Please model this.
Amino acid sequence: MRVRASTLVAGVFLAAAAVSTFVVSQVVNSRREAGAGAPYAPKGAPQVLDPGAAADRGAAGVGWLSGRVSSEIGKLPPGTSVFAQRSGGSREEPARALANDRGAYRLELPEGDYRVWAATAGGADVRARPAFARVERGRTLTIDLAAASPLAGPVIEVLEPGGAASAEAMVTLARPGDARLALATPAGEDGRVGIAPEMGLAGREVEVRARNGGRTGSWTGVLPDSGAVTVRLVPAGTVAGRVVASGKAVPPVGFVLTVASQPAPQAWRTLAEHRFTGDAFAVPDLPPEPIRLSVKTDDGRKGTALLTLAPGEERTLEIAVAAP
Model:
């Protein structure tokens, strides 16, 4: 069954590019296929799902997005990827599929509504006006994207605490006080994201947030018509300590430590899961926001610690465990 491209494009409020690059600007073909069968990734196009999407797969059906990215200016740059972000103001990181040398890509996603765009992993940013797609259980939606000319506009530049470019930092942009995201995309290898004039944000107050691992940063102000807005990340924190048994119970011989953060109220997300032998642990690269450390020992005892680290803080603590 074919779906007209016009039904998948609703407004041009998300677009970005940088000088000497191209931007995927339109859907040139789209169709749905039933009975997708087993997931298939084109050669050279491995699939990466964000942790939130992966966690949802057991609770919801999955479908697929696939297609090709073409360019009017010649061969696609190596590292060109297609991204899918849940619609409705989601703060989940987008799912990503790397396009192969022929521009083919494939994404497996939980059913729902998504914005779909393209970018490169290299120093040149490539951004897209989004296609709006609905992923349905057991079906494949094919979206072919065409590349257009570069767009001019302001640039968001993300720097590491020491001043180096923060390669592939995740950048979000929204109006202050608005939970909906106008943009959520990784920066290029040079730490830069270009904002196209079609977004209509020049001259307006915006909130820019960036993170790379546990290093985070933000900027709030009026977005200029051109030039760079710099977001410098602050250092991540580190927690080290021991897991201790309550009462006269024997110390643990091994345990799993799950690390979760809370970047927004009621928005806990798992960052990592670590396996330790003995009773000691050390967890680096933690963001300066509420952190939850959950311990489960090999014999089933559990414990939890809640804390918030200052940028660059190194903290020592003990996590008590007891039988459930």
